[in-house]
Amino acid sequence: MTGTTTFPQMVFSSSIPQVSVVTDETRVHAVVTLGGDEIYDEYLYPGGGGKVEVQDISGLVSVHVRTKLVAGLEVALYEERVAGEGDEEQATETDRLVLATRVVYCAALVEQDALTFCSKNFLTLYRGKRLTSMGRLEYLHFIHSELTDDTPAVTASYTDGTQQTFTPEKVGGNDDYSTIDVSPANFAAEGKTLYKYEVQCGWRECHFDIDLRNPDVAPVLLFTNSFGCQEIAYCLGTHTVSPEFNFSSAYIGQNKRNYDVEEVRTFKADTGVLTYPMAFWFNDLFRSDEVQLLNFYDGEPHPGRMVVITDVKAEYDNNHDTLPRFTFSYEYAQRNHNVLDVERAGRIFDNTFDHTFN
Predict the structure, then answer these.
(1) Residue 197, pLDDT score
(2) Using CA atoms, how far apart are residues 241 and 66, in angstroms rounded to an integer?
(3) End-to-end CA distance of the chain
(4) How far apart are CA 273 and CA 329, in angstroms?
(5) pLDDT at 352
(6) How far apart are CA 106 and CA 109, in angstroms?
């Protein structure tokens, strides 16, 4: 059996190559194992020229590795010679080929090998400087790499010209990846005004500028990005609620009654003006299949209802006199849209609106 495929040391789940071998025996027994769990076990029979292929390994693996984020992948091919038929069939192994790699979940097609990317980047599609404000939550995720130091550090800069170094807290992860809290409030200093900070973790860098206006935001959405990690999107534009009611009526006796009222509560959000890196990143929110409201009660974050995005207007161009600005609509994911949040009862609008509307 001759193999024509090799695996790199690390690979994204969206870019796993198909495995091809050439055999002159009866069949090939293919077994695919991910994180120690067997997810594929089939006998494959050669076609023209004795070629056997295991195709779409990415589709097979992605659904499993998404919950793990990182997992070891092994594709074992056992060449077998079969003699006899039916109950008298006997299979003899004549050769074997085992391919192994480390798979990182990624729904995007990245134009760089996984090992280099994960050693030099955090797990986000965001490129360039980020804009944040005091009171917001910011998290970064990264894959542990043997090529670089995985010890994160934050250098905070203040308006009086001074700087201070911090070690961000690790708030999640395992032996394969880490999540660190880089919220701006962690780097505030008494009597000083923070205006920017830089996160470094080996070759990885992320720069944050502070919007000192600290604008109101609504809604705040927690979503799963293309790397299977959670990120937070803050919208600065107008937030609108637009409920619709569908009535089912009938005459009961001599009186007409609504025997069923279906409410669909649609929210319309505006991102506000975006930079081009922010606009590219916001598309990751729109393609996410896990989006959740994030509410703040007395400054403390509380995950809210799951929502589904139903309509997006995300067009932008390269004209020098325009900047991207997106609008989108979303609804509660559950069937019953009659939601009462007792923490914010009595507010004019829904609980996703900011406190300006108290």
Answers:
(1) 98
(2) 33
(3) 73
(4) 17
(5) 45
(6) 8
Q: Which ranges in 75-184 belong to alpha helices (H)?
A: 114-120
Cβ atoms of 110 and 143 closer than 8 Å:
no
Concatenating the DSSP letter of every residue in 313-345 gives E------TT---EEEEEEEESSS------GGGT
- In DSSP terms, 208 is beta-bridged to 130, 197
What single letter denotes the amino acid at residue 338? N
Strands (E), 274-332: 291-297, 300-313, 325-332
Question: Which runs of consecutive H residues, i.e. helices, occur in the chain?
Answer: 57-65, 114-120, 276-286
C-alpha span between 233 and 317 (Å, rounded): 22
pLDDT along the chain (358 residues), means of 10: 90 95 92 95 92 94 93 95 82 92 96 95 95 95 91 96 96 94 96 96 96 91 96 95 93 91 94 94 96 89 94 91 94 92 57 44
What pLDDT is attached to residue 15?
94
What's the predicted TM-score (pTM) here?
0.89
Q: Rounded to the nearest 5 degrees, what angle is found at the Cα of 78, between the Cα atoms of 74 and 79? A: 150
Task: Centre a 10 Å sphere on the Cβ of residue 208 and count the other Cβ atoms it contains.
Answer: 22
From CA 238, how far away is CA 266, in angstroms rounded? Answer: 14
Q: Is the dihedral of CA 85, 89, 90, 93 positive or negative?
A: positive
- Under 8 Å CB-to-CB from 55, ≥6 apart: which residues? 18
**Is beta strand 37-44 parallel, antiparallel or unpaired with respect to 139-143?**
unpaired
What pLDDT score does 297 carry?
84
Integer Cα distance of 268 and 326 in angstroms: 11
Which is nearest to 166 in space by CA: 177, 179, 181, 176? 181
